[in-house]
């Protein structure tokens, strides 16, 4: 039965190690069972009652104390020290929490919103340009301390091309709506084929932007709060921009100056930058379908070089095949392709 649960989880796409963890098993134990002709779970559990287990009277005392009018609004972390100050010890914090959990009494009772588990965004797969975009906002320093210019920038995940950007002096959903709507029309996006991933801020979830994307038939995806890894392509793009040798070390003296610098950066990034994530072609060449000819030319050069001096090669020539698909927030960590 146990091994069948593990097999069912693996068939659904889970890793064996994670399935074993949920079943409170060591992965090596499962491997040993499989080697023993598929033996089932032979764990017997403890044969004796732990000597430090609370008696039923002690357990009842814990429940009576924590539910008393004096302590019912306090957590075990507050109850235990309070009792210790009176010279009383009833049980450890961990034991009290365990008892409350077993009695289904661990409930959120404060007026504040309870913590919620945030799930990873769904995997997005791009196999050509204008299928998955990522966009975000980053701050650019202005001449006034504490006041910033806001750079809105969208990148095509498959080609890495910057498809839209603009700088404003405030963060507004209306600005994002106009930017992405213009880019959608300029790129000639096929209706119903584009998904846009974004962070969780108010400009991203504003009604104006969401209404625009819904009207255009664009699917939306959002990062978890405070999880920058959910939006890696935009984060990487901003990192490339801000660590460029020419990025100003001092604040931009005006919004026009900021726009001028970013315009030059985008032109370089799209048309000159040989991007390591797409076989060192420019984003513009990949976006417009010119990469295959470029990579095939490089492959022929390498094959001719190997033909001239085969003793210098121990294996295949460098991999110049185009990257066929790009994943955003993959369900499983992809195997890194060797170059």
Give a description of the structure.
- By secondary structure, this protein is of the alpha/beta class.
- The strands form two sheets. It has a five-stranded mixed beta sheet with strand order 4-3-2-5-6, with helices on both faces. A two-stranded antiparallel sheet has the order 1-7.
- The model has no long low-confidence stretch (mean pLDDT 89).
- Strand 3 and strand 4 form a beta hairpin.
- Helix 5 packs across helix 6 and helix 7 packs parallel to helix 9.
- Among the domains are: 34 residues, no CATH class; 39 residues, no CATH class; 148 residues, Ribonuclease H-like superfamily/Ribonuclease H (Nucleotidyltransferase, domain 5).
List strands and helices in order, with pairings.
Layout: H1 2-11, H2 16-22, H3 27-35, H4 56-66, H5 76-85, H6 93-102, E1 124-126, E2 132-141, E3 148-156, E4 162-168, H7 173-187, E5 195-198, H8 202-205, H9 207-216, E6 219-222, H10 232-242, H11 255-271, H12 283-287, H13 291-308, E7 326-328
Parallel strand pairs: 2-5, 5-6
Antiparallel strand pairs: 1-7, 2-3, 3-4
CATH class of one domain: Alpha Beta
The H-and-E topology, N to C, reads as HHHHHHEEEEHEHHEHHHHE
Beta strands, count: 7
CATH H-tier superfamily of one domain: Ribonuclease H-like superfamily/Ribonuclease H
Taking the sheet with the most strands, its summary is: 5 strands, mixed
- Portion in beta strands: 5-15%
Round the mean pLDDT to the nearest integer and report it: 89
Rg over CA atoms, rounded to whole Å, is 29 Å
Distance between the termini: 43 Å
Query: Could you give the order of strands across the largest sheet?
Result: 4-3-2-5-6
- Give the helix proportion (percent range): 40-55%
Please count the helical segments.
Answer: 13
Instruction: Choose one word for the global shape.
Output: extended
């Amino acid at each position: 039965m146990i091994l069948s649960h593990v097999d069912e989880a693996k068939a659904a796409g889970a890793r064996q190690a994670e399935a074993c963890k949920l079943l409170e098993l060591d992965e090596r134990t499962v491997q040993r069972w499989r080697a023993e002709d598929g033996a089932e779970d032979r764990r017997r559990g403890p044969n004796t009652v732990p000597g430090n287990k609370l008696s039923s009277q002690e357990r009842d005392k814990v429940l009576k104390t924590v539910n008393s009018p004096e302590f019912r609004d306090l957590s075990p972390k507050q109850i235990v020290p309070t009792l210790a100050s009176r010279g009383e010890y009833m049980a450890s914090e961990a034991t009290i929490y365990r008892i409350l959990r077993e009695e289904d009494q661990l409930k959120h009772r404060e007026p504040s919103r309870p913590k919620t588990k945030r799930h990873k965004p769904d995997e997005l797969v791009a196999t050509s340009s204008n299928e998955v975009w990522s966009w975000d906002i980053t701050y650019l320093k202005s001449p006034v301390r504490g006041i910033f210019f806001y750079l809105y920038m969208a990148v095509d995940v498959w080609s890495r091309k910057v498809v839209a950007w603009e700088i404003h002096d405030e963060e507004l959903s209306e600005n994002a709506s106009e930017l992405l709507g213009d880019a959608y029309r300029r790129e000639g996006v096929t209706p119903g084929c584009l998904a846009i991933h974004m962070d969780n801020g108010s400009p991203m979830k504003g009604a104006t932007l969401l209404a625009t994307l819904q009207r255009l038939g664009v699917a939306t995806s959002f990062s978890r709060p405070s999880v920058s890894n959910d939006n890696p392509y935009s984060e990487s793009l901003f990192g490339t921009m801000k660590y460029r040798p020419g990025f100003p070390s001092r604040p931009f003296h005006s919004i026009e100056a900021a726009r001028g610098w970013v315009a030059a950066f985008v032109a370089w990034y799209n048309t000159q930058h040989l991007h390591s994530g797409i076989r060192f072609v420019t984003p513009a060449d990949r976006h417009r379908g010119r990469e295959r000819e470029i990579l095939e030319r490089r492959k022929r050069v390498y094959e001719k070089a190997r033909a001239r001096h085969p003793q210098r090669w121990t294996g295949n020539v460098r991999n110049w095949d185009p990257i066929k698909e790009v994943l955003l927030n993959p369900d499983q960590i992809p195997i890194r392709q060797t170059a």
